[in-house]
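Final report, closing paragraph on structural work. Over the funding period we assembled a curated collection of sequence-structure pairs, and we close with a single example.
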Amino acid sequence: MSPSPSFRNGLLAAVPVLRAFAVSLAKNADRADDLVQETLVKAWDKQDSFQAGTNLKAWLFTILRNEFYSQMRKRKREVEDTDGTMTAQLSVHPSQEGSTDLTDFRKALELLPEDQREAIILVGASGFSYEEAAEICGCAVGTIKSRVSRARARLQEILGIEGESDFGPSSTTNVTNVA
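Its predicted structure, as stored:
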């Protein structure tokens, strides 16, 4: 359907008042120009829904206002990320590295003496307190603390972990002692 000349002329005539209204809403000339452009595009696309003889300017103002509030709602959900920091935090690391790390950890865990393995699993993996783990194992709290400490040190040694920077999905561990 080709636009009627009166519809086209009405759009062109409304541009200055649309722009003034858009500037009052957006408080920024560039954003206002974008709003007016988007309003005109939407009006052009939906011209068949405009009823001839009604107030074209009011119809255009309604489109512009609705577009402005839609953009505001969208902007509330957006986060400015010029340096990519937020994007990096949202990225998903390859699962195969985590799977490999878990396999390496299980192998290293198997190399621990049974008493150390039991202590670190109770305290580190199962979430028991030292006191609860000592009660489960039937030994003193100090013995559990010692076993956990030695188990952690041995696991770090086996897995080649030297510091905190070796932890996490972006780290690479040098696992040479795991058979």
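The chain is about 70% helix and 0% strand. The CA atoms of residues 18 and 36 lie 6 Å apart. We thank the funder for supporting this effort.
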